[in-house]
Design a protein that fits this description.
414 residues; Phosphorylase Kinase, domain 1; alpha+beta; six-stranded antiparallel sheet; 12 helices; Phosphatidylinositol 3-kinase Catalytic Subunit, Chain A, Domain 5; 36% helix; four-stranded antiparallel sheet; 3 domains
């Protein structure tokens, strides 16, 4: 089996994505390559005239697809193999993360297609069927793809009205439904994201919305820029697994994926503002420790390509996993060699400093400052959730976890 798809960066053709049997390749378009300021699609796919082999190509393009059960269900909807990256992207690659659109030859990017209005009642039905019909895969005119293992739906939102992007139209927001068997994950994630905002972490706007009595998590896409009503510019992004050439199946450190040392080194080498982005990455790591987020792996970190520069993207997927007894509480990335937060000691923090290349006193000062900000922000934020009547039992559990982690932090910085 062979075939070719065109890869666009917004409306600009940048290359060809090709399948030849079981092997994949990517080659930059000559016209794009000849431009003086042409940015690479990925750190691993530098602008050159030679095609990239299967390994480099697969690491970038596989990371555009959903994972696990969601990917298997998409494959069923499309009638293709779950391992056929090319066919999956042919089916749902029209609106991927970042500025990437993957189109069949002859399809032209731009404002073709439409934003189809969808009523709250119809949207509620679509959300209810996401487990069996993820991303509306196979539906005429709809070609949406996002990475990750959670059920989610990209939409366009305007004045509190919802629209399904069709054709080449870009989405502006992402809706996530609750994770089965875990209590109130919608409120959990919205609360943690807003707490991150309160303490100064760069995060997109996130909130709980009610769709016909169902609480849903809605987050604004940081890789989209609203130009005018109905007009969205895609901003290119690249997650850390793509930047490091790691396939999604190896995103966890214990499976051979990136650890903190890899991530901090990557920021130093690839960001156009490495000092500021290193500080933000450090704050992200410490914040995840304080809220008890044990699922903070490398695919939850990205670079944003905008204005001709490459910077660490705003943070997302912030969730307190420690509130759930049935979920592993081990770090996705070891901190100073320690994978269990209960046994984290000052010696581990010192080793973490060595891994990150940041002075220990700087890490301690940043942790101390962050603890003060979290302490000052968490109770007023919790009160706002109580007033909004979100039935925030989970918020009380998060506060309990944070109180424990704040005490642990104090023992590390003395």
């Amino acid at each position: 089996m062979s075939g070719t798809l065109h890869v666009y960066w917004n409306s600009r053709l940048i290359g060809e994505f090709t399948q030849d049997g079981a092997r994949l390749s990517f080659r930059y378009d000559d016209g794009y390559r000849s431009q003086r300021a042409a940015l690479p699609l990925s750190r691993q796919l530098t602008v050159r005239d030679v095609p990239f082999d299967d390994s480099a190509t697969r690491a970038f393009f596989a990371n555009l697809l959903p994972e696990g059960d969601i990917r298997r269900q998409v494959a069923r909807q499309l009638g293709v193999s779950v391992d056929n990256i090319f066919a999956l992207l042919e089916g749902i690659g029209g609106d991927c993360a970042g500025a990437v659109s993957i189109l069949r030859p002859g399809d032209i990017p731009g404002p073709s297609g439409q934003y189809r209005p969808i009523s709250p009642e119809a949207l509620a039905l679509e959300l209810a069927t996401l487990p069996s019909h993820p991303f509306l895969a196979g539906e005429e005119g709809v070609r949406l793809s996002l990475a990750g293992a959670q059920h989610k739906l990209p939409l366009y939102v305007e004045n509190s009205a919802f629209f399904i992007p069709e054709g080449n139209r870009a989405s502006s927001h992402i809706l996530k439904t609750a994770i089965p068997q875990l209590e109130q994950t919608v409120i959990n994630e919205a609360f943690c994201m807003n707490l991150a905002h309160k303490v100064g972490l760069p995060v997109p706007s996130a909130q709980v919305v009610d769709i016909v009595g169902q609480q849903v998590y809605m987050v604004e896409r940081y890789d989209r820029k609203r130009i005018a009503p109905g007009e969205i510019e895609r901003l290119h992004q690249e997650d850390f697994c793509q930047a490091l050439g790691v396939i999604p199946e190896m995103k966890y450190e214990q499976e051979g994926g990136p650890g903190f040392q890899d991530c901090f080194k990557l920021v130093e080498e690839w960001s156009d503002e490495p000092i500021l982005d290193t500080l933000n990455l450090l704050t992200w790591a410490l914040f995840n420790f304080l809220i008890g987020n044990a699922d903070s792996h490398a695919k939850n970190l990205s670079f944003l390509y905008a204005g001709g520069t490459i910077r660490l993207a705003p943070f997302y997927d912030l969730l307190s996993t420690a509130v759930y007894k049935r979920v592993s509480n081990k770090f996705a990335m070891k901190m100073g060699g320690q994978k269990d937060p209960r046994y984290l000691m000052a010696s581990h923090l010192a080793r973490f400093a060595e891994e990150t290349g940041i002075e220990l006193r700087t890490i301690k000062a940043q942790l101390s400052e962050l603890c003060g900000k979290v302490e000052g922000a968490i109770v007023p934020l919790a009160e706002s959730y109580r007033e909004a009547d979100h039935r925030p039992i989970i918020v009380e559990d998060i506060i309990h976890v944070v109180e424990q982690r704040l005490r642990k932090a104090q023992s590390l910085i003395v």
